[in-house]
Each structure stands twice: as C-alpha cells, then as structure tokens.
Design goal:
globular; Tachylectin-2, Chain A; four-stranded mixed beta sheet; 27 strands; 439 residues
C-alpha cells in the first residue's frame, strides 16, 4: 500500500507493508493528541505500568509478558471517501458504517434503514484532513445486497440490525440483532454467507446462536497467533450498550472468544456457537455505576457510551476498543432539551457539545484472570481511556460507526459517519479514516 502524507510543515511518501517504512523525507513524527476530559491526561493507569512504544519484544513467546500500549501508538495516516450514488432503493448516505477490510476490499453496511452490504476497492490512501483531497472508492465491486431475510431457516426473530462483519476463508460472518428487542428474547445472532465475494448469489446459512446473544454479537476480529492458544480461540466477538433496551446489552465493551471452525462449520441441527467470556457487563453490574453522571466525575462510561469495535493488538497485551461517548462533563438526561434547543428522543448529554469519539484499552492479563476463574468478567476495568481524536468532524461531532484492523497492512480503518457532504445537496456518506499502529 502506498500512502502519501501531507502535513502542514512536512510531507512524505511511504510504502507500507507489515510495519515496514521504505522511504520518507523526514524522520520526525507527530504525536496524536489525547483527551483531557477533566484536566488530566486521559491515559489513566490503574495498577498497570505502560511501557514505552519502543520497548518490549513484539514476538515474545509468552504473550502475557508483551507490552501495553497507549493511544500515541496509533498514528493517523489518511483517509478515503465512498460514493453517494443510489443503488436501487439504497445508498451509503445515512450509512450505519459497520465495516470489514479484506485484502484490498472494504465491506460496508449502508443506509441504516436498509442494512445492505456493499463491497468496494480500497483506493490509495491520502493523508489529508481536507475531504475534497481524498480519493473516492468509485464504483462498487458488489452493489449493496440484502442478506438478513435470506436465511434458509427464515428470519423468525425479526433480525434487522447488522452489528459486525468478518471475512474468514472467503466466507462472510455477519452478526446482527433486532434493533428494538423490547422482549429481550432474541437468540438468533449470526449468519454465514458462503461466498463473501458474490453475496448476491451466495447461499446464506443460519441463523446461528452465538453464546452470549446480544452481549457478544457485535464486532468480530481475529486473535493474533501468539494469543490463540492462551485464550482458546482464533476470533473475538464483542458488543456494548448505547443501543435500545439496555438490559439486553453489555453495559461496557465485551469480549467473547470463539473459533473459525465453530463459525464456519456450524450444523443446522445445532445452532449454538460456543464462546468463552473474557469481558462482560450488565445493567446490574455496569462498567460505571453512575450512568447519568450525576456526580459529574464519571469519565469512563455513561448511558450514551457505545463501543463499535475491538481487537487484540498484535505484539502487545492490549485489547483496544473504540467507539463514542458523551455527558462526561455536563451529565446525561432522558428526553431532555439540550443547550442548543434540541429535544432528545432518549438519553443524551445536557450540553450538545459534550460528546466525543472515545477509546478504552484493556490489559489482556486481566481478561485472562477471568478465563482462569480468578475474577468476574464485570470486575475488569480499562487501564487507559479517553477521547479518540478522529478527523473529518464536519458537523460539530461525527461519531465513528465501525472499524476494522488488518494485521497484514497494519491498518486500522474507522468509518466517520455522515462526514462527507461534498457529493450533493443531501449527501452525507461516511469518510474512512486510516490509522497505523507502531511500537
């Protein structure tokens, strides 16, 4: 992948392949800003020693001895846009933004009313915060395709909300739930498209039942090889609250381990897909007890916090989760009128400006203690958390809707929702921002 960088004071052209920088016109680096929600550095450490980004062997035979990282290890390297064209009944305007990258392809869930999946070629990534300077992905490889109602066993639980995508061995694993499951009785979570690269013609297997239900059935990511034996699987699935009917969700980011063989070889006669719980919360045992932030001292998790993606960072013992949050300064109300006059339909911060993209970093050793029965999944706390500075904030605040990390290209792609209004009067497609991880 060739990435052209343009900073205010310097420029560089890099050829990136699995962490290798072939050439650059400056050795200087720019450290990403970090959040300071309460006047303090947001990299809050609780009985954890953060190691320098350059210390600790990435190939340590014992993954539990690998270093922890901080937000400065993720460097913004550019972005690209997706088209606002109409594809039959749908488009990428008002996109949900759940994404998956596979080889040089981007799979993305489009308009939130339709939950259709499209595939695009990832164009050359340009380092600019000027959206008009970015490359556009162009015509789709696969135009948006519906999958939720194509299961051979039919959609008997009214599943209508895609929450995660993962390409495994040429197949597409699709996690989903019912957006407003008031009865909290959904058990169906997962579909399998046998041919990820021909969704229109592919058979769709499922619905399968991921053990953990809505607590588990969100994002998916691969487990780095050095961690697979230790955690007991090669894929991770997680989710969080911040969506309707909080009692059915993990009230904080979760982590459940599963295996590709269980996902790809699930039997129609046995719908359950086993998982191992490493991190999980509930309304009774949330990540933070003051979800309304009545004390104005909660900078961790509120009623409006949402995690949209998580992965174990290769060569480290960090489980990195990303999403967005609000109300850490002004507090949270329910169906209130905000400072800008907006009447909320549900939970929202009193101050309409009190919202941000966010991150929560977890020590895998803490998650292993859950696996080993030494503590409960709801007792774990992140060693670092705070604002995640994401570019393309064209509407005051543009939340991230999804993300996907590719270990081969060492690229974290993040969908910035409704950020691009340059393609027409009513266009508001996401912009895809790219970050690179380095130790």
């Amino acid at each position: 992948m060739r990435i052209c960088l343009s900073f205010e004071t310097r420029c560089a052209c890099l050829l990136v392949s699995t962490l290798t920088i072939v050439s650059a016109c400056s050795s200087s680096t720019t450290t990403p800003q970090t959040n300071q929600t309460s006047g303090e550095n947001v990299i809050s450490v609780d009985n954890h020693e953060l190691e320098s980004p350059t210390t600790g062997p990435a190939d340590n035979a014992n993954p539990a001895e690998q270093p922890l990282i901080n937000l400065a290890n993720f460097r913004f390297v550019g972005g690209f846009t997706v088209p606002a064209d109409q594809y039959g009944e749908t488009s990428l305007n008002y996109a949900k933004g759940v994404i998956e990258q596979s080889d040089n392809s981007l799979f993305i869930v489009g308009h939130e009313h339709h939950d259709m999946i499209a595939e695009f070629t990832i164009p050359e990534i340009i380092n600019s915060q000027d959206i008009s300077a970015l490359n556009n992905a162009g015509d789709p490889i696969q135009s948006p395709v519906s999958v939720l109602d194509r299961s051979a066993s039919s959609n008997t639980q009214a599943i209508d909300d895609i929450t995660g995508l993962e390409v495994i061995d040429g197949k597409l694993v699709i996690n989903a739930n019912e957006y407003y499951d008031a009865a909290t009785d959904n058990t169906h979570t997962t579909l399998l498209a046998e041919n990820a690269f021909d969704l229109q013609s592919s058979s769709i297997d499922g619905y399968y039942e991921l053990n953990g239900a809505a607590h588990a059935a969100g994002w998916m990511s691969s487990v780095p090889p050095e961690w697979q034996t230790t955690v007991g699987g090669d894929y991770l699935s997680g989710s969080s609250s911040g969506r309707p009917i909080i009692s059915r969700h993990s009230v904080g980011p979760s982590a459940f381990i599963t295996s590709a063989s269980d996902l790809l070889e699930a039997d129609a006669g046995d719908l359950e897909i086993p998982t191992t719980k490493l991190l999980d919360f509930s309304l009774e045992q949330p990540l933070h007890e003051d979800l309304f932030n009545e004390t104005r001292s909660n900078d961790l998790w509120t009623h409006t916090s949402v995690a949209v993606y998580g992965f174990i960072v290769p060569g480290t013992r960090t489980y990195a989760t990303f999403g967005h949050s609000s109300g850490h300064q002004s507090g949270i109300g329910y169906k209130i009128t905000q400072t800008d006059g907006n009447l909320c339909g549900g939970y929202c911060p009193f101050d309409s400006n009190d919202q941000y993209n966010y991150y929560w970093f977890w020590d895998m050793n803490d998650l292993l203690s859950v696996k080993n029965g030494e503590r409960q999944a709801h007792d774990v706390r992140p060693y670092a958390h705070g604002q995640f500075e994401v570019p393309y904030q064209t509407s005051g605040f543009n939340p991230i809707g999804g993300a996907s990390y590719d270990a081969v290209t060492n690229t974290l792609l993040v969908s910035v929702l409704r950020a691009n209004n340059t393609q027409g009067t009513y266009s508001n497609t996401p912009v895809i921002a790219a970050f690179e991880f380095s130790q």
